[in-house]
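Residues determine shape. We examine one folded chain.
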Amino acid sequence: MGGDGGSIPRRVELVKSKKKPEHADRRVANAALWRHCSLSHEPLRPPIVSCRLGRLYNKEAVINKLLNRSKLNNTADHVKKLKDVRELHLTVNAAYGETSDPLKDACGEFYCPVTGLEMCGVHAFIFLWSCGCVFAKKALEVVHDNRCMQCGTPFTTSDVILLNPQTEEEIAMAQKRLEEYVAANGKAKKRSAPVNSDSSAAPAKQKPAEQKSKEDGKPDTESPQPGTSTAQPPTKSTKSIQEDPTASSVYKSLFTSSEEAKRQPKAHWVTYNPLYFR
């Protein structure tokens, strides 16, 4: 029923099905990951660094990001300082040339010094966070040792970082290890925070008093509050004049504390009053 003399259109020609997502060529993807900086997308050139997610960066690009965070993308937002990346010790491949085409050959600029495998995306590579040395993942599976096979630095399983994780499982594992590392560093900072706060609180309390004394031009002294006396209370060492061995008996009789004054029938001249006997 096509209207042209008996041609019949089929369902395939009339109904359009959903197109399958296009996948980039593996060699193109490998060339972008293993030969270019994940931050600036420029060709990798020494010094090359990597983060705990296994991404490759030019050290110059990381420094530029830390100095001016507004110009570059948010690929490495987890990199807050240079200590969050590690400089890689890569072994240069002598067979690699500047004219090598990554889309035609699988030759890598660097290779594993243990297995001889080239770092071009075909084989999985790792690096050790403790020293920065790079090896093929197969080298760790063959050589079971807790020391670096190139420099002899001891390492643990947490120091082994996979470069450019590909599968969803590998990416999730790298993200989880990064979160654990950030959480561990946060707890360490909280433990050291009380010590610093106590030490800084003492000088802060002294500053107002020092500032007040500088403004007045006088030393900071406490003024007595109203209603309080500044006179010191009498000490217990005060003795009566009657007990003084140096005073004469005539001098002692002038005081009311003498025995003669106590035996008088009427008041003495100080307390004399016409109304005394009333």
